[in-house]
Amino acid sequence: MDVLDLARWQFAITTVYHFFFVPITIGMSALVAWFHTRWLIKRNPEDMRLAKFFGKLFTINFALGLVTGIVQEFQFGMNWSSYSRFVGDIFGAPLAFEALLAFFLESTFLGLWIFGWGKLPEKLHVASIWLVHIGTVLSAYFILAANSFMQNPVGYRFNPETGRAEMADFIAVLTNKVQLVTFPHVITASYMVGGAFVMAIAFHKMRQAHRGQAATYDGVGGPDEVPMWRRSARLGAVVTLISALAVVITGDIQGKIMTEVQPMKMAAAEALYDTPPDGECAPFSVLTVAGLGGENPQHIIEIPCLLSYLGTGAWDGQVQGMVEIENEYRAKFADNELTQSDTYIPPIAMSYWNFRLMMGAGFLTAGIALLVLWFTRKKAEMPLQGWWKPLLVLAPISVVLGHSFGWIFTEIGRQPWVVFGEMTTAQGVSPSVGATDVWISMIVYTLLYGVLAVVEVKLFLDYIKKGAEPFEEPQLLEDDDKLAFSY
Amino acid sequence: MDLVTFWFILLAVLWTGYLVLEGFDFGVGMLVPVLGGTKRGPAPEAQEQEKKRRVLLTTIGPHWDGNEVWLLTAGGATFAAFPHWYATMFSGMYLALLLILVALIVRNMGFEYRYKRDSESWRTRWDAAIIFGSIAAPLLVGTGLTNLVYGMPMEEHMSGQTAYTEFTGNLFSLLNPVSLLGGITITVLCLVHGAHFVALKTEGAIRHEARALATKAGVAAAVLAVLLLLWLGIMHGSIWSWITTVLAAGALLAAIFFNLKDAEGKAFVGTSLTILFAVATYFLMLFPNAINGRGEDPALTLEAAASSPLTLKIMTGAALVFTPIMLIYTVWSYWVFRKRISTEHIATPVEVNA
């Protein structure tokens, strides 16, 4: 592998790994804030217990999102210095905004929330966890604006004097049409993750409580906890389903915008080689065997005209095939070092399958959420069936992987570009960093991330097992009191 | 003042903020085995030491994460305001930055996970991560920053009609004597700064032990700092950098003096000012470059490294509006946790039958 492949692999490993934790952080912070707020309003001890229980799980997860995020901030300069030079004038600003507006907010108020028990007046304490959540959402906005620039560069001009892309209109960068649909797509998909985690964990605890197995703290954890967990499981399921609906709607709009700005990506997502003849629509295949790499893929389940609809909003809309688009691009981009490429077609099988896996993963989680709602309805008996176990593990994991599939599709489908139409990925890599250096860093990241994943998952499961602490009436501490929370 | 110079000064401010704030939490991390001891187990003495370690970590608990954001902001601001600086420095210091990242990662995980399981071996391991990270990170950050001043091996390239530089060395060209001295000096300075912070934020035996240690380490830091700034000053000094050098030395001596007088707040301000003047000295020795060239090698100038006027204008507007807001809630969070902590305040952990 040459240094370009290595740098790409490393970026893929570190970014996909980072993004396991990001949607959990965004989604769970909102639900923890919800429970904490509900305690403030209704004074129901269960809400306080739930806020603390899910709060702990949230912080266990937040830790990894945080540390792997630092790597992301540095990686552009470390491995993609030519890219950073070329677009830094535009791309750097949202990153700086993210640090100044979002990271400070998240970290300061999370510190206040974790250490604030007994110190902060309750309303401020609840406000702190909301500000953490707002910080996570702001952070997503800025980093997605940066990514949207790579997908669909706007608000810039090329300056021949400095040999780089420069800012022309920052508002245009922040309101890129790709951004305006990607942001709600990612945020609602993150709420889906938060909902799925709360749903699955609470459903599991409900079953345990019913059997009397959740009693780890003195006097709590028995069948009296069933209503608390049942209610949380239902809340999680509802959040999952509402978010899933929003994900589908935003995803649908996104598909149309993507067909417009990057027709190649959507053609690759369907392995559509040839533009359908005039007057014919493009079908969408659900399953294909073999042949994705050739000119005649064998679609075995095909829905007529669906691709035309997904791409254009009209059942008879015209969708271009890859061959035609590539010919256009060759004519347009071949004479510039930054934009010339052997092929302008992205890896087709990766695009095709990740697109489908993304949707399938999301639908799977939504389906489980429906089941949960049905099995926890008022008159239902306690769902003690053995087959719930794998479903409960699958529900949150599937939607998290859905995020990964979606991102892999988005990024792979953009290839060979790093900035669409402006710079190929091959041109962006750091010239002063050798293959040995990247081998070393990639191995170090992989090992370190692997160890941390094992530690994290084990801790996460332990805390699920421990269950919710017994309720304690919160009160402000006097000077000589022991701290309510300390390291 | 033009915006390029303004952003150069703003980066100096961000680095000062980072080293003053994370500087003390690095120091506290290093002091865990020194002030908190290394005995573990059920013996009463070991239990008392464990409480001390928890006191130390709790003083920085609500703050270390926010402190670290100053580094991310410095990185992001460098990217936005000086893309070539960001690109040359981050790709040039590749393996050193990897080590910094590893140090920060294991250290942060230590803070966040140490208290999450009641097991001696678990705590021992995370303490090792905290101590390693707290020493390695300032050592490497200091070495890296000193390299910018001392000069990096670079060659010139063209982008359009703009000349920028690309790093030509390797990890070992960064590990030169003066840069290593820079790393050691900043690490010891963080140690002193952290000891002042502990003296300011705790009560009981630990407070007195911190004060005693701060004096000894303060003298060592003063000797190292004078050596370092003389060495760099002879190569790159100007009248202004000599003035800030004297101010840095003066602030450090004042800090030692106040610490001896048990004026903990003033001692902490003293080491904060030392860091401020040291960063000012570094930046004055850089100006008008972003990175000095090693020997005859070309430098990366601020002018070549900078973003377009429009980007700098947008960034300036954002900085002027949002920095004060950020400072207000940061100061407020320090106010909320202003009380001194002692081993009396540490609750014994609730036993959980996991």
TrEMBL record, chain A:
Signal peptide: none annotated. InterPro entries: Cyt-d_ubiquinol_oxidase_su_1. GO terms for molecular function: electron transfer activity; heme binding; metal ion binding; oxidoreductase activity, acting on diphenols and related substances as donors, oxygen as acceptor. One of its GO terms (biological process) is aerobic electron transport chain. It is found in: Cell membrane. Pfam families: Cyt_bd_oxida_I. Keywords: Cell membrane, Electron transport, Heme, Iron, Membrane, Metal-binding, Transmembrane, Transmembrane helix, Transport. It comes from the Bacteria. It is a multi-pass membrane protein. The chain crosses the membrane at residues 20-41, 53-71, 91-115, 127-150, 183-203, 235-254, 355-375, 387-409, 438-461. GO terms for cellular component: cytochrome complex; plasma membrane. The keyword Heme applies. Belongs to the cytochrome ubiquinol oxidase subunit 1 family. This is Cytochrome bd-I ubiquinol oxidase subunit 1 apoprotein. It comes from Marihabitans asiaticum.
UniProtKB/TrEMBL annotation, chain B:
It is found in: Cell membrane. Keywords: Cell membrane, Electron transport, Heme, Iron, Membrane, Metal-binding, Transmembrane, Transmembrane helix, Transport. InterPro entries: Cyt-d_oxidase_su2. The chain crosses the membrane at residues 85-106, 126-150, 180-200, 212-233, 239-260, 267-291, 311-332. Coiled coil: none annotated. It is a multi-pass membrane protein. GO terms for cellular component: cytochrome complex; plasma membrane. Signal peptide: none annotated. One of its GO terms (molecular function) is electron transfer activity. The keyword Heme applies. Its main location: membrane. One of its GO terms (biological process) is aerobic electron transport chain. Belongs to the cytochrome ubiquinol oxidase subunit 2 family. This is Cytochrome bd-I ubiquinol oxidase subunit 2 apoprotein. It comes from Marihabitans asiaticum.
